[in-house]
Amino acid sequence: MCPYALAVIRVFQQIPMCVGRLRMNYVPQILLATLLFCCANAHTVFGNEDTLAEESSQHWAFQPLGNPQPPDQVGDWSDHPIDRFVRQKQVESQIKPEAPADPRTLLRRVYFDLIGLPPTFEQIEAYRRDSSPDAFAHEVDTLLQSPYYGERWGRHWMDLVRYADTAGDNADYPIPEIHLYRNYIIDSFNADLPYDLFLREQLAGDLLAHSNKDERYAEQIIATGFIALSRRYGTSPYELQHLVLEDSIDATSRAFLGLTLRCARCHDHKSEPLTMEDYYGLYGIFASTQYPYTGSETYASLVTSRKNFVPLEPHQNVSVAIQKHQQQVENITQQIKAIRSGELGQQLAAAGERLKELNEKIQSAETTGQEYENLQQQLQALIVQRQQVISVIEEKEKKLREKLPRSDLPADLPAAYAVGEGEARDRQIQLSGQPKDLGEVVPRSVPKFFRGANPVKIPENHSGRLELAQWMTNPDSVAGAMLARVMANRVWQHHFGTGLVATPSNFGLSGSPPTHPELLEYLAKQFIDSGWSVKALHRLILSSKTYQLASTLDAKNFTIDPDNRTYWRFARRRLDAEALRDTMMWVGGSLNLGRPGQHPFPPAESWGYTQHAPFQEIYPSPHRSVYLLTQRFQRHPYLGLFDQPDTNTTTARRTSATVPLQSLFLMNNPWVQSQAQSLAGRILEHQGAVEDRIVHAIQLVYGRSPGEQEAALWRSYLEKVEAELANQNVPDPDRETETWTSLSKVLLTSNEFLYVD
After folding, report:
1. How many whole angstroms separate alpha carbon 327 and alpha carbon 330?
2. Are 585 and 622 in contact (CB under 8 A)?
3. Residue 707 contacts by C-beta under 8 Å, 6 or more apart in sequence?
4. Are 486 and 533 in contact (CB under 8 A)?
5. 3-state secondary structure at position 181
6. CA-CA distance, 403 to 397, in Å (whole number)?
7. Are 25 and 45 within one domain?
8. 193 and 288: one domain?
9. Cα 389 from chain centroid (whole Å)
10. Does one domain contain both 105 and 33?
11. Which of 54, 164, 252, 651 could bridge to 159 as Cys pair (CB 3.0-4.6 Å)?
12. What span, in angstroms and rounded, lies between the C-alpha atoms of 203 and 532?
């Protein structure tokens, strides 16, 4: 058969059966579209193995890490290694960089970048007055030591690991314990935990904890919340588990290595050196892992309990308590079973037999007349009698089930939503990704192309997660090089708004090439040489003149490089959802900078969420936005409006949409109004004339003093608002508050407040 026809059939067959009706109703259209696609993308569809292998062997991201040296300094602009790489590209494009940013702009920029909050007016003025050459470096060090740094950069990581406070099953059950993983992320960034260890703990922290048994035992257990957070599906425990494992593989490969492995579930990857054998080699590793179960619709019906959470103390310390708890569960379970095997069960069985006999007699041809009527009456009476027995049995079972603990661990034993070792064994390929259509068994391993001549040896009784983590974080391997490049690019992306690689979770053949390949290689090498220190990477990037440029627009440069790919200026950008909310509360004095505990979920014993009545809550909080409740089914009403990441999948880069609803929210939402009122209260607390209060307001919100003309405009605005309120007969005490609230709201919704230059 023609290879084009084979490709059409193959692609057509891979259309999910869940859209089967659509597939059957539109067969001609789908076949035609598929054929046109195959013709236009023959190389990709047919997957020429020789060509793909050659391209992969030469692909920049699949090479061992190099050690490029910065090019020679061009002129006297800067001898910083980053600037030398950047300036070389600018010279090639005949572009000159913008002037340095002014002190206020630069300090505001680095504050938002590192802690997600603005500097105060007093901090800006102190920085202005500091003429020492290391003034900016001192500010950077101060911010990196702030506890708010981990909250800011922990939130970036939470986007990647699809953090959510719910499981994603058809009732979206809560996970009260997952806040421990959130706190682990924040604390790890604050402590500058070496990035390679940070990853090993998230993939195999339980195994490290069992072997080390040191003071970080609990943290290492909690770290595996990364795997445990994989999206759940269905109604019962571990339903559609192959999709849960797919999410684990996808998040691991994209977030850590910048590889899109998901495509290899159903067929060999068409544009990357990844095969189905590679996918199911990793599948076996995660399938040999025990995932926790927080609940689902069957939990609501008392059929199942929460189970397979991991204690935060070594087994020998808690084994007695767990055995006692399990014995209690077993005793009640046996009592439940005894109901149906005892006298009531015998009555139910006897009634069932008698029903069968009566039905057979009634249906026989010989039964007629009065005998038939008698049998019908006996049948109805027996049905009532049997139902009465069933009701008694169910009532007794219900009372006993209500006594059953809702977890397989004692209620007072601290535990984490984490993973442990399961039944270690290799798994079969699922043909076309269908778990019931199985092929050959694939040994647990890492992708063949990237392991090279050194195969990863996984002991027979191990899942392979520790071996996977060790392979991935080996700096001398291709995987280690990819790991360093991907993270270096992510840090650059969050400082500049876009990465050196524009597709931050796709470094493969189908991804974008780096704009500055030697610079990315240099950053990755410095990252590893620093001991995988993320904070050292910050210091290196932030100390460059490239980072410290103004965001002003030069017409000539813009004509040559409108996308700023040569970094000739700093790209202005809007505050993200968390920074915007936190800053509104910060300047108004309503932000609680403490760390909250877990969300105020109802007691687990009361959970009765179902597909038709899923868990849905918001839980307003005065704390920083990183601590807000995020769900899989329901987007937060504020965060979702301002580009909250999808908690069902790893998010490498958020969108930055500008839609009318955002403006309407800022204009009309009661929460924004309450922040304006809080800010107005702070302004009115300041003693002095109206002019003094205007100066104080601008200093609070913008971190600067207003000029004379600007102050006059604000004075005029206040007079007009006050006059309008007087016309509306608003009493004097309320009139002053409402007047300053109006001004506060204008300040909080202005572009100068919403954007970072």
Report:
1. 5
2. yes
3. none
4. no
5. helix
6. 10
7. yes
8. yes
9. 50
10. no
11. 651
12. 17
> Where is the domain boundary, 528, 546, 574?
574
- Look up residue 580 and give its two tokens: 């915007």
**Rg of the chain in Å (alpha carbons):** 32
Domain endpoint, select from 11, 31, 51: 51
pTM tops 0.70: yes
Q: Which stretch of DSSP H or E encloses residue 137?
A: helix 135-144
Written as one string, the DSSP assignment of 451-481 is HTTSPPP--TTS-SHHHHHHHHT-TTSHHHH
Determine, yes or no, domain membership for 632: no
- Nearest to residue 546, comparing CAs of 69, 86, 66? 86
* pLDDT attached to residue 531: 97
The single-letter code of the amino acid at 134 is D
Among candidate residues 173, 163, 421, the one with its CA nearest the CA of residue 310: 421
Task: Give the long-range contacts of residues 338-347, CB within 8 A, separation 24 or more.
Answer: 339/393, 339/396, 339/397, 339/400, 340/393, 344/389, 344/392, 344/393, 344/396, 345/393, 347/389
In a domain, 600, yes or no: no
Q: Which of 301, 230, 179, 258 is nearest to 508 (CA)?
A: 258
Both 137 and 227 in one domain: the answer is: no
Residues 171/614, Cβ–Cβ less than 8 Å: yes
Q: Which two tokens stand for residue 98?
A: 């913008």
Cα–Cα distance for residue pair 390/8, rounded to 1 Å = 56
Number of domains in the chain: 5
Domain holding 733, by residue range, is 665-756
DSSP state of 429: E
Instruction: Return all residues near 257 (Cβ < 8 A) that are at least 6 apart.
Output: 472, 479, 482, 483, 486, 507
Residue 648, Cα to own-chain centre: how many angstroms?
A: 7
- The Cα–Cα gap between 77 and 87 comes to 9
Q: Is 97 domain-assigned?
A: yes
Residue 386 inside a domain? The answer is yes
Burial (CB count <10 Å: 0-12, 13-18, 19+), residue 508: buried
CA nearest neighbour of 678 among 747, 594, 752, 741: 741
- What does each C-alpha distance from 700 to 330, 731, 739, 748 come to in angstroms? 62, 27, 17, 11
Between helix 103-115 and helix 534-542 the angle, nearest 10°, is: 160
What per-residue confidence (pLDDT) applies to 486? 98
Split the chain (757 residues) into runs of 10 and give each run's mean pLDDT.
47 47 53 55 55 87 93 88 96 95 97 98 96 96 98 98 96 96 98 98 96 88 98 93 96 96 91 92 96 91 87 91 87 83 82 83 70 81 86 82 83 94 95 93 93 85 96 94 98 97 95 96 97 98 97 95 96 96 96 96 92 94 96 92 93 91 93 96 93 96 96 96 92 91 96 96
Contacts of 44 (CB under 8 A, 6+ apart): 270, 271
Q: DSSP assignment of 536-589, as one string?
A: HHHHHHHTSTTTTB-----HHHHHH-TT-TT--SPPPEE--HHHHHHHHHHHHT
- Taking phi over 0 as left and psi of -120 to 50 as alpha, with beta for the rest, 414 belongs to beta
| In a shared domain, residues 223 and 360 | no
DSSP state of 17: G
